[in-house]
Design brief:
The structure is a homodimer. Chain A is of the alpha/beta class. Chain A has 15 helices and 17 strands. In chain A, the strands form four sheets. The first copy, chain A, has a six-stranded mixed sheet with strand order 2-1-3-8-7-6, with helices on both faces. The radius of gyration of chain A is 26 Å and the shape is globular. The interface between A and B is large, with 89 and 91 residues. β2 (35-42) of chain A pairs antiparallel with β2 of chain B, so a sheet runs across the interface.
């Protein structure tokens, strides 16, 4: 199957919005083994959109269009698709009912504009949108070809893609008796992309099926192992020995699979071990607690946390001795330790986790530069402190600090945490 | 002048790399007043690249191609451009000298592959690359049209664009006596895209220069006002009366400009009014504190915050009366009020802000469904509570709750916060 993407929106042509939808769509199509030769971007212009749709429809089996399904007058994708194939727009009662239901659920009244979103090119099928009002559209055309329209809001596009489009493509591919492309992603923390590449370069170079591709994310590295086979089972059989080979070398840095972040792995360990944790945050300002509570069911291990930004708060809430703050400073191993012990006592949990550092851009000195962070972890057997130096701006330092803290917690729970700082 | 972009690279079609070059190029072109109707992306395939170049050259005055100028065998942009216009590739001595000089400076020896980078389509002019080996290419064609090729490495692309391409475009435009395009973005919270559209549709429809385009983000709406004029000053003169007209109707929902989020607007108000705030979070789990501390200088208004996830924590840390929790539940206006008062007292701040709700996916009931959130704000003059119902998954509910809390704080600081719930 050959696909083509059309990304609609004048904001994309003005460079005001970076198009991330097409990368997501391209990845999902690649995983399904669908080829992609062209991606086009066009403004909110009915004639130009229609021309692109016609051209893409000639070149490809499946055209996926993103954007231009909103309620306003400059949302013209369905009109353009209707033009491209000489169709009328007709009201889809099911889609209308779903949009009405969406507004009803929110207790808000529906505007006349939202009614427009229930009109589809004749013969089109509405694809349910669980995250918003604009339904997607599937338009099946002669010669086994199809055009799919999705909203440009990323969360809505992804939801319809996962719920409706991918099952549809799988079904069509099944009928075509195509090969599947199946990927498994391994996630690593604590090694850079080039270090990982150095360690397993020979394995990567020797592989043709499956192939191995490294990617760097924000503070972590992923290896994607991709196999092509007659079906998913056979693909997995190809992947597993390669995964084993990789983990023999990279095992200590491996933490999980697919789209499961560190917080999910940590939450699973906490629940399995019936351990509770409290977090005292300074430079991350609540981000670690936010990540830990992003996981459904987090109330099983997380009851409370403190953001102690000022020195006074560190003393008043966590009982950090002002002497420690005066002698070693707020950004020190001693303070991190006292914070971890303090928050554990304050919350009555099994584990206390703390961070204190300089997120920048201000506040750095030669001895304690921006990006310097101390971590503390306190548990029934003792307390450890760690020191890390991060690069990047304020938000990156916060993100990297939160990941590092979660990894310390993970290693503690697995019993593989290193010795901490000596004093 | 009408331009068109072609982004070359198979990695872009696999979704492995997010294309940021086209957003940068689009922005720079918009600033110069150059129109852009299409952006296309294509893999490392000589025939397909050549076809796209021909099509773009027919549709536009200036075609800018990014990528495919590297030293390896799958870098085919110059070959494809030569094919498109029936030209030979010829050695450019100046370009060769510059590549040799680059390697000499790095103390590295030059490979035969790098010699390939000095070959250009006949008639083409090398554009000096201060950041790498691949020179850009300017190919001037009949009827005042041109094709420009740039390397795909963002830092190299930008350097050649700034040093050579923008001066070239300015020179051509000077001859054409061109205009600039200037945009201003207004940000709104508390109204959906279609509701805003309903309220100002007549203004949008009546405008041709500037134009007005709405777009929806995560929980907020932006209106972009774009003017075309001889220079930036004249563009601003066109924009300002339209902005005034829009704000006459949408003023209460307007909160800021450009890329400044609610947390930046709130932090500016807090600092200006010398007010401090503490946050007690339940369902957001630290996200509001994280957002407030994303702003540099946040220690000027933020000292501490609490994540009180469990009922026990609400009572132990914030002093919420167990009677209130038993009678009204943790997710209630009464609890939100008690949390706001409690956190203000606990932290000794001017303002206490609280949220308590059901982020899901579990924990909802018919009376208190997933997405139901109560907010509290306590200040020297009193305490108010608010109720909101959000749609979306756990992360979306957290994000939307955090935005709503920041907006309540903003409105309080501006003295335009509504009356709260009655009991």
């Amino acid at each position: 199957m050959l696909a083509e993407l059309i990304m609609v929106g004048t904001e994309l042509l003005l460079g005001e919005v970076i198009d991330t939808n097409s990368a997501y769509l391209a990845q999902r199509l690649a995983e399904l083994g669908v080829d992609l030769y062209y991606v086009s971007r066009v403004g909110d212009n009915r004639k130009r959109i229609a021309q692109l749709i016609q051209q893409a429809h000639q070149r490809a089996d499946l055209v996926i269009i993103s954007g231009g399904l909103g309620p306003t007058a400059d949302d013209l994708t369905k009109e353009a698709a209707a033009d491209a194939f000489g169709l009328e727009l007709v009201l889809c009662e099911d889609a209308l009912a779903e949009i009405e239901e969406h507004f009803h659920r929110l207790g808000r009244s529906m505007s006349e504009n939202n009614r427009r979103q229930a009109y589809l090119p004749a013969g089109g099928k509405a694809l349910s949108n669980p995250k918003g009002t604009a339904p997607g559209v599937l338009l099946e055309l002669p010669e086994g070809k199809a055009v799919i329209m999705l909203p440009g809001v990323p969360v809505e596009l992804k939801a319809i893609m996962e719920d409706s489009v991918i099952p549809y493509i799988r079904q069509v591919l099944g009928e075509e008796n195509g090969a599947v492309i199946y990927s498994r992603i391994l996630r690593f923390y604590g090694l850079g992309e080039s270090a990982i590449d150095d360690m397993v370069q020979d394995i990567i170079a020797a592989q043709t099926n499956p192939t191995i591709a490294p990617y760097a994310g924000s503070g972590e590295v992923r290896l994607r192992i991709t196999a092509k086979a007659a079906n998913e089972c056979e693909a997995i059989e190809l992947i597993e020995p390669v995964e084993k080979q990789l983990l023999e070398r990279l095992g200590p840095y491996f933490y999980g699979y697919g789209d499961e972040g560190l917080e999910i792995v940590v939450s699973r360990l906490l629940l399995a071990q019936k351990q509770t944790v409290a977090v005292a945050e300074s430079c991350t300002g609540g981000l670690i607690s936010h990540k830990l509570t992003n996981v459904p069911g987090s109330s099983g291990y997380y009851m409370q946390g403190a953001v102690t930004y000022s020195n006074a708060a560190k003393t008043a809430v966590l009982g950090v001795d002002p002497q420690i703050l005066a002698e070693h400073g707020a950004v020190s191993g001693q303070t991190a330790r006292a914070m971890a012990e303090g928050v554990r006592k304050w919350a009555g949990t099994d584990i206390g986790l703390s961070v204190t550092g300089i997120a920048g851009p201000g506040g750095g000195t030669a001895a304690k530069p921006v990006g310097l962070v101390y971590f503390g972890i306190s548990y029934p057997g003792g307390t450890k402190a760690f020191r890390r130096q991060f690069a990047g701006d304020r938000l990156l330092v916060k993100q990297r600090t939160a990941l590092a803290a979660l990894d310390i917690l993970r290693r503690h729970l697995l019993g593989i945490l290193e010795e901490g700082l000596e004093d």
